[in-house]
Structures are given as C-alpha cells and as structure tokens.
Inverse folding.
C-alpha cells in the first residue's frame, strides 16, 4: 500500500470533516499507550512533540522522540509531527528555528510547525516561507501560526471571559489570506478563543479553564482560506464547540495538558510506570471514542 503523506491525510480530514487528534508526547513512555489506543480503536492520529515537551517535560529531544516513535509507529494509523518551533520563544528569546526544522525533516518527521506568531506579520511571513521552501522539497507539510494563542507565557494571561469577548489576538482574516498566499503553508493554527495549557508555575499542575470557540469567526476564516485549520490548546475546550469546529475547517486538534496530567498524576499516585501507561491508554480510548467520536474512522484515510 502506498503510504499517504501528511499533506494528503490532512486534506482528507478537511474534506470528510473528520478531526485528527494530535497527541503531544510530554514524556517518552507516553508514546506506546497512545499508539496502542489509536490502533485498538481504529483512529487515525498524529503524534507530536514541541520544544516545550523536551525543555519543560520529559520528551528528551527531537531524536529521542523519533526513536521512540519508530519502535511503535503504525503507518495505517499514525504520523509524526514536530509541534511549535518558535522563532521567538515564550521567554522572548530568538531561536535558530531552521536548525530544529532541518533536524526533524532529515530524521523523517512527516510534518513540522514553525511558530512566528510573536513576530510582526511581515517577519512571520518571511520565516514561515523559509521553512515552507525548505520542507516542501521533501514533501513535508508545514503548519504555521497567526494570531495569539496565549497560555505558554509565564506571566498571567487576561481573564478568559475578557479575552473571548474582546476577540483580542484572534487571527485576522485579511492577514490570514495574505499569509497563506505568500508563505504557501499547508495548515494554519488559528486563534479563535482557544488557549494553551500552562507550562510553568503552579498552574502547570492545575486543571485548565474551559475555553470556547468563536464559531462565526472560524466560519469566516474557513471560507476565506480553505486549507486545513488547526486548533491548539485542545484540552479543556467545550466539546460541543470542538465538534462544531470540525464542520468549519478545523482538521487537527492538539491535545497536550489533558493527557500529560493523566499520565503524570497516575505515575505520582500509583508509583508505577505500567499503571500510568494504562491510565493514559484508557484516557486516549475515551477521547477518541466518546469525546471526539473519531474512533472507527481510520479507514477514511487508507
Ligand atoms: Zn500550540
């Protein structure tokens, strides 16, 4: 069987309006139970890792995750994605983003994300285009971000209701069209009411506040862009909004905090790696079957 690349997979997700869960690997032993849950429930998923997962948590490195993924991967149900390589990171430090991107592409990651959302529009376009020009020669998909999906920064974020009702930081539609045309990015991470889970301080271990989605704004973005859109900060978004978003162009949703906490808390309370992996497996099965109702749909991607 010819293995479809991630660009093709996401186009199918968009056409068929089926969400691809993208599961963040915050700790290496999370890889096996997540893939088992996908295979056992016949769910197509992406496994992904961000710089935060190896800097702040236990994912090791781009290479470590790749090696762990290769042990358990299943070409019928899984692909590997490099999440969030920021041009300017959450502590306002500029990164040599191309080095990370090149390492992942050379290893064999199926898609990559460059996050220039802290730059000006012109700078974001130029960094994203640089990554696209490089990655596309290897048929590797590129995800970019426009707008402000807050939450990773260490300072306090504005109260959620204020953020949602003001629409502050939401992805601007005209800018998004220009961005897509000039960069050639395959997928766009949008800011439409979603927030990231906290990665530092006490909030890192607290339950995430529930978020909503401005569906009208999403609808306008979808109509103007027509490419697969990505919802970051999937943990804790009201599920009714998630399901409606899938009908309006959201093809991939990142899930980090939820599964990280299930794994970490089980490990802390039970003191057993096997029990933590089992808890994570059960949680993933529930996410695929009940929360997102994407179980049993992997055949759409064959
Ligand atoms: Zn994100």
């Amino acid at each position: 069987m010819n293995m479809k690349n991630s660009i093709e997979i996401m186009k199918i997700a968009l056409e068929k309006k089926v969400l691809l869960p993208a599961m963040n690997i915050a700790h290496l032993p999370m890889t096996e139970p997540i893939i088992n849950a996908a295979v056992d429930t016949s769910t197509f998923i992406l496994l992904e890792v961000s710089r935060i997962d190896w800097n702040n948590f236990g994912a090791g490195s781009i290479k470590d995750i790749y090696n762990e993924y290769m042990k358990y991967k299943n070409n019928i149900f899984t692909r590997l994605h490099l999440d969030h390589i920021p041009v300017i990171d959450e502590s306002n430090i500029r990164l040599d983003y191309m080095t990370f991107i090149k390492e992942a592409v050379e290893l064999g990651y199926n898609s990559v994300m460059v996050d220039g959302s802290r730059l000006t529009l012109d700078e974001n376009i130029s960094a994203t285009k640089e990554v696209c020009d490089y990655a596309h020669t290897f048929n590797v998909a590129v995800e970019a971000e426009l707008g402000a999906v807050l939450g990773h920064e260490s300072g306090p974020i504005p109260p959620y209701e204020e953020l949602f009702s003001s629409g502050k930081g939401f992805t601007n539609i005209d800018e998004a069209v220009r961005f897509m045309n000039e960069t050639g990015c395959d997928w766009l991470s949008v800011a439409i009411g979603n927030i990231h889970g906290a990665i530092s301080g006490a909030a890192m271990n607290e339950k995430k506040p529930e978020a909503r989605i401005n569906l009208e704004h999403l609808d306008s973005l979808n109509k103007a862009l027509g490419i697969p859109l990505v919802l970051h900060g999937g943990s804790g978004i009201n599920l009714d909004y998630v399901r409606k978003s899938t009908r309006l162009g959201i093809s991939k949703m990142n899930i980090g905090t939820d599964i990280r906490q299930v794994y970490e808390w089980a490990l802390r309370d039970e003191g057993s790696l096997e029990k933590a992996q089992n808890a994570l497996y059960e949680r993933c099965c529930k996410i695929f079957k009940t929360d997102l109702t994407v179980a049993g749909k992997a055949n759409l991607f064959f």
User: Anything to note?
Assistant: The chain has one domain: 6-294. The radius of gyration is 18 Å.
